[in-house]
Specification:
Layout: E1 11-21, E2 24-34, H1 50-57, E3 64-70, H2 94-101
Antiparallel strand pairs: 1-2, 1-3
Length: about 110
């Protein structure tokens, strides 16, 4: 584990992370660490597994191996996808949307 006692930001480590969808290996034995306050960029071709790696980090994809995020209690990691899939006819303001996604409980429109 990586200590974050004296720095800002999370420490993240991937240890032998793998992901299969159907019969295809999307990720295979991915291992690396990101120290607190470091900046990394994930690049690669379309279909190369970049989004699957991030979604595994967020707990949105079942994976093998270990992903460890070390950060003080109460902190969260945010993710802004390239495209949002929602009904464009839904009558909602940006403020309404932000209220919904930034709360742990049900948000009421207009707050």
């Amino acid at each position: 584990m990586i200590s974050t006692a004296t720095t800002q930001g999370p420490a993240i480590s991937f240890l032998e992370v793998g992901l299969q969808l159907g019969g295809s290996h999307i990720l295979n034995d991915i291992s690396f660490s990101i120290e607190p306050a470091q900046l990394h960029c994930i690049i690669g071709p379309n279909g190369g597994g970049k989004t699957s790696l991030i979604r595994s980090l967020l707990g949105q994809m079942p994976h093998s191996g270990e992903i460890c995020i070390e950060w003080p209690a109460g902190r969260r990691i945010g993710y802004v996808p390239q495209f949002l899939h929602f009904d464009r006819d839904l009558p909602m303001t940006v403020d309404d949307f932000m209220a919904i996604i930034s709360q742990d409980r049900m948000a009421i429109f207009g707050l």
